[in-house]
Amino acid sequence: MGRQRDTRAEESADPRAEKVCGSCGRRIEWRAKWARDWEAVRWCSDACRARGVRPVDRALEESIRSLLADRAAGATICPSEAARAVAGDADEDAWRALMEPARRAARRLVAAGEVEITQGAKVVDPSTAKGPIRIRRAR
Prior knowledge:
The protein contains five helices and six strands. It has helices at residues 7-12, 46-51, 55-69, 79-87, 99-111, and strands at residues 19-20, 27-28, 76-77, 115-119, 122-123, 134-137. Strand 1 (19-20) and strand 2 form a beta hairpin. Helix 3 packs across helix 5 (99-111). It is globular, with a radius of gyration of 18 Å.
């Protein structure tokens, strides 16, 4: 009998391993033009590279963690709760500008394995979720 190849080692060496954008938390799709420097790719777009992760983004992540820590194990929060907590009482509508950054913060926490994003009580892919979402601690 011939030796069998160990395909597990080959799979882990796949140059197209899944990556997550450091700014928006979405899955980065492999592109042929990135083949030479795939290991160095950190951002999904020029906009995400320019935006990066600002202090307000870190504050939103911490707000999500804090809100979930104050809830029961299976409870969820809306990203708007984190946005309202970070915006404070300065302006009644200031939290609205933080809604997309709050969703980005939630996607980064999903990539870190800390939370899950749900719709209709079902876990959804954060890269493709559209519409209202809820956030809960990872199970």
